[in-house]
């Protein structure tokens, strides 16, 4: 059995006990405390050393955790010690947390942006994620200036990267391959959350996906065959689509001068002069 399966099995057992005792939050805290201690490298080495007697190991665990967790959770820690599963304590904690969130109808989400979220953007993100997942969102906000703008959202095992840094990487790949306008993979239902800077790197502005012309149609040309006038001359956000080369942007060579041919009458007159 894999370590992941073993961790799920023990987390499920602890979770069921916590429900029976109606002490879900207490068990959640105790499992976290056990994992916090058992992640220590020196302690893991001692508790996993076969030459150390089990009585000695039990004494160490009781001294460390006896006053910090409930008796049932202490027994759980001793079982992990006896079965040489101390190293799995962090994974058991994570699995217990997943079960806890499912039971509570909630899910954690991590949102990384170039600048801190304002109240309106935060509310919009939470509303969209809640509509997509059907669960209450436990939002964790992080700031990373290196993404330039937009947002990176992780919900469980799902990662949605709408950062400007990622968009530029995709654009470079499209230029290299000569292909543009591909789909935004993995962004279904979330595209409107990913925005480009409006007043500088990292700001919140127009959605990254798509660009609109002056008449609201995507990618349409103006009256003179120019690019859409939606963002023209305003210094506003520029989407990855608008950054892509267009057919009208191809360089044109100057026309070659062609000497005019003489009329047919002129040719006949010239021939007669030569004969004379």
Number of strands: 4
Order of helices and strands: HHHHHHEHEEEHHH
What class do helices, strands and sheet pairing give? alpha+beta
CATH topology of the domain at 3-102, by name, is Peroxidase, domain 1
Q: Which second-level CATH architecture of the domain at 3-102 applies?
A: Orthogonal Bundle
Q: For the report, how would you describe the main beta sheet?
A: 4 strands, mixed
**The CATH C-level class name of the domain at 3-102:** Mainly Alpha
Distance between the termini: 111 Å
General shape? elongated
Radius of gyration over C-alpha positions, nearest whole angstrom: 33 Å
Number of helices: 10
What share of residues are in beta strands? 5-15%
Q: Percentage of helical residues? A: 40-55%
Low-pLDDT segments:
195-258
Q: Which strands sit side by side, in order, in the main sheet?
A: 2-1-3-4
